[in-house]
Amino acid sequence: MADRSATAALLGGVALLERAINYTLGSLLLVTPQLMSRPTPCQDWDLRTLLIHMNDSFDALCEAVDDGQVSLTPSEFDRDADPVAALLRFAAPVPVPADARPADRLLGFLGRQPR
Q: Nearest-CA neighbor of 48 among 60, 61, 33, 59?
């Protein structure tokens, strides 16, 4: 029974993350280069810095699923690169079976081919 409860909680968490990522990806369509220097609620962070952080967070999420651990060193990101384009690489989900493991569903949602 506890195993079913844990699986249900994990699936609920993945579903919530999918909705949050979908909302984020939709919001990215409104971002223009002129907005990159705008402040955010995060003190001392402009929009570009926040989007770079989001890219690193998505990379860490994929690393956790792929490797079972996350490096303490953030991924490298060229400050001159377009952080919106980098995030939109997650906008093309890979189909996975409905009964796939939660980790595989998450990888598929993030545009990565599950193992």
A: 33
